[in-house]
Amino acid sequence: MTTSKEQETVIKSELRKSFFRSNLLMATSNFERMQALGAYYSIVPTLKRLYGDKPKEVRVAAIRRHLEFFNTNPYVYGPILGISMAMEEQTLENQKDSVISVRTGLMGPFAGLGDSLLAMTIVPIYMSIASGLAIEGNPIGPILFFLLFSITIWPIKYKGLMLGYEKGTEILTGENGNNILRRLSTMGNVVGMMVVGSLIVTTVRINTAIEYTVGESTINVQEMLDGIMPNLFPFLLTIGIYFLLKRKSAKNAVRIIVSIMIVGVLLSLLGILA
Question: Could you list the residue ranges that cross the membrane (predicted)?
Fold first, then answer.
């Protein structure tokens, strides 16, 4: 007979295995079910313990259940996996559909949280720091990015998995859980917009070489525009590209990039751009 201490050891081992497996969530991503196969692979240790001695039909049903469509931000997948593992243990067999219902319901909120706070904010900041060093020829750049990324993402994934398993659905159904999620999402959106705005100013460069003479004075158009509104051309170009991408659902992204390159070269040859 298994004691509670032995059971706890088994569960901790499962959690560690699932954590390492969850890092392969994107390895088998496809356009049919997105991350479903990676999600199933992550929860296999728990399914083996719960269904290892069950009839074949029950095992097949459990496998199919976790191969349903799934797609979220991989950096914050830990809590969803932990909650799924806890619900697999706690729910009756005729209530197992609720596991996938909850998992599906959490995809969107966690995807928004991970995209805004991590993928679109923290990671670009780390990339900009590392890229600055790499452009200067410093080999520490890519190494620094890997270290910063690992120090940030791995603890979030590991702690998220453990917290998700310990708290189960309580982590989000409780009032505090909802408030925390909303606050983090809002904070991520605000910081993300600030980072995107600063990247436009620092990385998008458009300077005109047009000058004209009035009497004995030579007026530089670029200096005049900078006096009115610095970085006006980068701002207009960014807004224009954003409008085109939104209008065409990013289908013509490659065409837009190539067109910008061609137009930029032509304007430079004509002496319009510096």
Answer: 106-127, 139-156, 190-208, 228-245, 252-273
| Per-residue pLDDT reduced to its tens digit, 44-87 | 998 888 888 888 888 888 888 888 888 888 998 988 888 888 88
pTM for the structure as a whole: 0.61
Q: C-alpha angle with apex 15: 14 to 17, nearest 5 degrees?
A: 65
Closest CA to 241 of 227, 252, 225: 252
Contact 155, 19 (CB under 8 A): no
Domain coverage including residue 253: 206-269
Checking 265-272 for CB contacts under 8 A at 24+ apart, the result is: 271/209, 271/210, 272/208, 272/209, 272/210
Q: Which of 15, 8, 10 is nearest to 165 (CA)?
A: 15
Reading the block at residue 79, the tokens are 């809590």
Last residue of a domain, one of 174, 200, 226: 200
Length reported for the chain: 274
Taking the C-alpha atoms of residue 87 and residue 171, their distance in angstroms, rounded to an integer, is 13
Task: Look up residue 201 and give its two tokens.
Answer: 């100013």
Q: What angle do CA 66, 67, 69 make, to 5 degrees?
A: 105
Q: Please indicate, yes or no, whether residues 175 and 91 belong to a single structural domain of this protein.
A: yes
Residues 141 and 212 in one domain: no
The token duo for 77 is 């997948």
CA gap 173, 102 in Å, rounded: 11
In the numeric block, the tokens 């453990």 are attached to: 162
- Report residue 93 CA to chain centroid gap: 34
pLDDT in tens, 240-269: 888 887 776 656 777 888 888 888 888 888
Identify the three-state secondary structure at position 22. helix
- Boundary of a domain, candidates 200, 221, 252: 200
Over range 163-187, report the average pLDDT. Answer: 62
